[in-house]
Amino acid sequence: MQHINLSAMVTENRNPNSEKIDNCSTLEILQIINNEDKKVATAVEKQLPQIAKAVETITRAFSNQGRLIYIGAGTSGRLGILDASECPPTYGTPPQQVIGLIAGGQPAIFRAVENAEDNPELAVADLKNINFNAKDVLVGIAASGRTPYVIGAMQFAKSIGATVISLCCNPKAPMIAIADIAITPIVGAEVITGSSRMKAGTAQKMVLNMLTTASMIKTGKVYGNLMVDVEATNAKLIERQISIVMQATECNRETAILALEQCQRHCKTAILMILANLNAEQAKQALSKNNGFIRQTLNKTI
User: Fold this and answer.
1) Residue 181: phi, psi to the nearest 5?
2) Within 13 Å of residue 130, how many CA atoms lie on the same side as its CB?
3) Helix H segments across 100-234?
4) Which among 56, 84, 135, 220 could bridge 292 via Cys, Cβ 3.0 to 4.6 Å?
5) What pTM does this model have?
6) Which residues pair with 101 in a beta bridge?
7) Phi/psi class of residue 115: alpha, beta or left (left: φ > 0; alpha: ψ in -120 to 50)?
8) Are 78 and 196 within 8 A, CB to CB?
9) Are strands 68-72 and 163-167 parallel, antiparallel or unpaired?
């Protein structure tokens, strides 16, 4: 069995602030966890320039019909799948535009799959299965920065000319050397030694939120701070659509509902119909000419 030097990883170090946590009151336990969690946002803040580079790369890929692919094992893989799965309902993206892959496949979402993370060939097969290509962007996610499954995926992606981004929480991790863009929030030792689902997982979640949210903003999926491509897949989201149109245009509820009905419940089109006094077809065509950006369309229409 391969020897792994855990002592070389910050995420595997012992945290002196929690060494006696088993002897604390419930409130004291929670205070220790909370105090450590406060360090996460600062660690992510230090990586904003790298995150910005990643967003610009992802945005260019989207404009070139490329995809964003997350890949990880365990918690890291689950976080990628979570972020990817939220994009279609929130931003109206095709399900294949942002994809999350996890070592061990779908069963690993719910429970650990033995040895899956140690198999780099499995990652290559998973990428080939989704027809991964040079237009796509791969984000390898691993708190340790050394997961063989993730490294195998990153090496394959590099070999075919795709852009590779690493997201890990250990400095000098092997993943960093492979990546074109390395995002490395150093959150320090965990409250429970080696439990990287905690601070490291929180940092990863924050970064993934930024990657997709900022990329969606830069591809016209947001107007002001409103998710104007939201899909109405349930009663709450139907109401959200109405609210978005009302907030974007300062119209009344009846006007918002009528506009949405006339354009098959497409928020962007409804907003432009009201703001630019266009019918549904005119608004749809105007948006198409401006790549779906409401503000650009308004500047040319009004």
Assistant:
1) -130, 125
2) 28
3) 107-110, 120-129, 148-159, 174-178, 199-218
4) 220
5) 0.92
6) 71
7) left
8) no
9) unpaired
Structure tokens at 259: 């506009």
Instruction: Please identify every residue annotated as catalytic.
Output: 86, 117
Q: How many CB atoms lie within 10 A of CB 177?
A: 12
Let me know the angle formed at the C-alpha of 31 by 20 and 17, rounded to the nearest 5 degrees. Answer: 35
Query: Phi, psi (5° rounding) for residue 70?
Result: -95, 140
**DSSP code per residue over 174-211:** HHHHH-SEEE-----S-SSTT-TTTHHHHHHHHHHHHH
Question: Cα separation of 144 and 190, whole Å?
Answer: 12
CA 297 to CA 302: how far, in whole Å?
8
Given a contact cutoff of 8 angstroms between Cβ atoms, the answer to whether 46 and 33 are in contact is no
Between the two ends of the chain, the Cα-to-Cα distance in Å is 68
Residue 165 near residue 137 (C-beta atoms within 8 A): yes
Q: Can you list the residues of the chain whose pLDDT is less than 70?
A: 1-8, 302
CA proximity to 267, closest of 219, 228, 235, 218: 228
